[in-house]
Design brief:
about 475 residues, five-stranded parallel beta sheet, alpha/beta, FAD/NAD(P)-binding domain, 22 strands, Enolase-like, domain 1, 3 domains, seven-stranded mixed beta sheet
Length: about 475
């Protein structure tokens, strides 16, 4: 039986990063993955393939609607080769997962393919089609991730009533895609298919889309996506989803109890994700799982069993790949006797629609609820020379700072490349910068980043220069 210092169950961003860091710290490390490729949901059926389709569909939309205004004339008819677009997406996924294979080999991490389950607190049984193995590990990290959630009355048939996994590999562009859920996944995939010609309807239970983000971002993204042709049914509760052959009927009621019936050829159910512990047999190791299916951990991400840790989507907190990565590094360093930390308030959230949406820190709603006195500075992207040059004038940057100390408490953005721009805000907040600190930093001109400086100026005695 092979014995390890650390064994990790699950090879998503949290798991494989934990494996690399453990190996860097001199620990003999194993990683166990039930699927044939490493990388988990993110690399195989999540972050990476969805971004590939978002970029491809964005190019198509630009060619159809925006090239002419840039002086680019394309002779003949522009045609969509959807099959090739899906093939390119898969090629990106394959290249990325092969990169994880390389990293495991480089760092001398032993990879086991099969279903990992606990025999007890130090032994893991690995079951594959070919064989059953058992390994021993001094420390174990659970990184089994999450799966798409559904509603009790919905039957996911993976053909017409689908999850994000199937939406990434359709054989055709839907005529009418009905999206249940106005969160990140539903909006990103909804925008992909809207660009490619589908009618898209989004049904959301809450009174706004991306409800966990700042309300100003919800309002702006709703406005922009409506302009792009997406239809929204907010404050609507879905009561039934029925399929007859190639038609799906979604029934919902609004807040006045009036019934709305939508008919489409595909229905994407994107109502969140659930922790995945199926087949883990955590009870064999004595590990506690709460009523939501989450593994319970302390501040060191340690379960109630001292040598077993859990990270990523399977524990509390936002289900984000980069959160899982930070947790993987943290646990590796704790096992090695170091004293790392994570500031969960400074883990950014991003929606990769176009325009993109990005946030870090507290929203206005959270500050109001907590009774914190704050200042707000906002700057519109349309006032930027760089945004006008690229034609990406939708959106804004908003900075919230403490009314007394001026420390930045939250930064919320909508616009081109704000997924990259939010890192400036994270850096500033990590060093507890004030709005004036950011306002006095030189930002290159012309860039989208100037909107951050201008928002900081606006939060500092309303000193914006370009509005």
């Amino acid at each position: 039986m092979n014995t390890y210092d650390v064994a990790i169950i699950g090879s998503g961003p949290g798991g494989y990063v934990a494996a690399i860091r453990c190996a860097q710290l001199g620990m003999k490390t194993a990683i166990i993955e039930k699927y044939s490729t490493l990388g988990g949901t993110c690399l195989n059926v999540g972050c990476i393939p969805s971004k590939a389709l978002l970029d491809s569909s964005h190019h198509y939309e630009d060619a159809m609607n925006h090239f002419e205004e840039h002086g680019i004339d394309i002779p003949g008819e522009i045609k969509l080769n959807f099959k090739k677009m899906i093939e390119r997406k898969q090629a990106v996924v394959d290249q990325t997962t092969k990169g994880i294979d390389f990293l495991m080999n480089k760092n001398k991490v032993d990879v086991y393919q099969g279903m990992g389950s606990f025999k007890d607190a130090t032994h893991i049984v690995i079951t594959s089609e070919k064989e059953t193995q058992e390994i021993n590990a001094k420390n174990i990290i659970i990184a089994t991730g999450s799966k798409p959630s559904s509603l009790p009355f919905i039957t996911i048939d993976k053909e017409r009533v689908i999850t994000s996994t199937e939406a990434l590999s359709l054989s055709e562009v839907p005529k009418h895609l009905i999206v249940i859920g106005g969160g990140v996944i539903g909006l990103e995939l909804g925008q992909v298919y809207r660009r490619l010609g589908a009618e898209v309807s989004v049904v959301e239970y809450m009174d706004r889309i991306i409800p966990t983000m700042d309300s100003a971002q919800s309002k702006e993204l709703t406005k922009v996506m409506k302009k792009q042709g997406v239809k929204f049914y907010l404050s609507h509760k879905v009561s039934a989803v029925d399929r007859k052959k190639n038609e799906v009927t979604v029934t919902a009621t609004d807040k006045k109890e009036q019934e709305v019936v939508l008919k489409g050829d595909y229905c994407l159910v994107s109502v969140g994700r659930r922790p995945y512990t199926d087949g883990l047999n955590a009870e064999n190791a004595g590990v506690k799982v709460n009523e939501r299916g989450q593994i319970e951990v302390n501040d060191h991400l340690q379960t109630n069993v001292s040598n077993i840790y859990a990270i990523g989507d399977v524990i509390r907190g936002a289900m984000l790949a980069h959160k899982a990565e930070e947790e993987g590094v943290l646990v590796a360093e704790i096992i090695a006797g170091q004293k790392p930390h994570i500031d969960y308030n400074l883990i950014p959230g991003v929606v990769y629609t176009w325009p993109e949406v990005a946030s870090v820190g507290k929203t206005e709603e959270q500050l109001k609820e907590a009774g914190v006195a704050y200042k707000s500075g906002q700057f519109p992207m349309r006032a930027l020379g760089r945004a006008r040059a690229s034609g990406d004038t939708d959106g804004f940057v908003k900075i919230l700072s403490d009314a007394t100390t001026d420390e930045v408490l939250g930064v919320h953005m909508v616009g081109a490349r704000v997924a990259d721009l939010i890192t400036e805000a994270v850096t500033a907040m990590e060093f507890r910068a004030s709005a004036e600190d950011i306002a006095r930093m030189s930002h290159a001109h012309p860039t989208y980043g100037e909107a951050v400086k201008e928002a900081a100026l606006a939060a500092t005695d309303n000193r914006s220069l370009h509005v």
